[in-house]
Amino acid sequence: MAARRAARADSAPDATAEDAAADDLIRPLSRATLPQEIVKALTDLIMKGVWKPGDLIPSEKELAQRFQVGRSTIREAVKSLAVLGVLEARAGEGSFVRAPSTELLSGAFRWGVLLSERNLDDFVDVRVLIEIECVRRAAERRTPELLEQLDASMAEMAARQTDHDAFRECDTRFHMAIATAARNPIFETIGFTIQSIVRIWYPKTYFIPETKSRTLAEHRAIADAIAAGDPDAAADAMRAHLDAAGTRLRRVLSKGKRAG
Known about the structure:
Mean pLDDT: 81
Number of domains: 2
CATH topology of the largest domain: Four Helix Bundle (Hemerythrin (Met), subunit A)
Oligomer: single chain
Distance between the termini: 45 Å
Shape: globular
CATH architecture of the largest domain: Up-down Bundle
Helix content: over 70%
Radius of gyration: 20 Å
Strand content: under 5%
């Protein structure tokens, strides 16, 4: 890996061309406070071949300076791409571009970045299909450990409602615990992809005053049904939660469209 980077560094024409291409794509954004805008820009760099598998991307500090955004915005975007398997974070080294395992993955994260009011219903449909099957299986195969995980995530969500990042992380843990409990690695992988899209878009709804309290109540209904070992009730509770979450996001996207 180091040899490859060194060889590329020694090739002045290639390095210059890549730097110029990166400069075209890394620039201040009109809505730069939104992590999904950064995700889209980083995605463009990868999909256009400016950054190739194995390449070390610029540091968080450098990207923040070039996009003219806060480091937390860069951190969230990079984390989302790492969850999707697009980037690999290595302690003490930085983030590297991973080789895509399938064309589906590339299409999935690009589609997620471009989520809009127009295709939100499609996303919710897919999310309902996957997460309802997962929650049914979780209710059938519940364990004390799963119930503890769900309760812990909800307790932390209740305690961290003023911290958007912490609330989102707890929300993700709740849904991923259910996906893992389905005991199917493909469901779990798709669950990670879904949650990476959720992480980018759904925090927009946190500015709707009732979002967090309603999310907690919806999660409680899901957890109670799982604890009772009732797959039908768990499926109904999950569907109600996903429909409500989609409605909240649709409200935000509609407002943004009118403002634009």
